[in-house]
Amino acid sequence: MPKEILEMSVETVTTELPDTKTIRLKWPDGHNPEFKTGQFITVYWPDTPNYKRAYSLSSCVLDRGFYEVTVKRDGKMGTRLVDWVKTGDKLFVIPPVGKFLPVYEPNKHLICVAGGSGVTPFRAYAREATRRSLPTKITVLYSVRQPKDIIFNSEFLELEKANPFFKFLVTCTRPQPTDNWTGRVGRIDAAWIKQFVTDLPNTVFYACGPNPLVEFAEALVFELGATKEQMKTEKWG
Question: Does the pTM exceed 0.70?
């Protein structure tokens, strides 16, 4: 039986970066769905029902009463949402689906590789793990061009302070002298990922973002000797 498509109101619009906004979609009264952190919803405007776009949830299952998606200005849908969406607008929402799910087990280490807006589902992972005080280790390795491109920087740093099992690490590929960046410089590479693999059989790898980054992570993980079950991916074109 197909899931019910619901019309939802835009409750808030938060500017994360000049080209990236978090859109909170309010559930209708009486709506209390079952879904999982890491899934995605599909949205479309009432006036263009044939043009739909899927977005990973940047909110987690413990965030009740709404869905949040964090959208970058990209393509027709992304551009319209970032440039034009406002509080009170209506969007149709196809309920959450997907298998990009965190494995919250005490002995597991989740190594999450992200580029650009591919970091958005990992905010949800870290939120749920922190609020539930889970002992699952989560390490996010995040690639951006410059420090100003980091999405959710403040929240990730707060989650890191609150959760001893969570680490948020950023590498910048094109920092400028005026950035005063003192962190890692360069692309995500094999040597950097391998630094965090201390127990391969109990490591689960996640990669989300541009296709080249995800495909690189996949190739590396299999080169390390991990199984297909240990590699989960979301490719965003």
Answer: yes
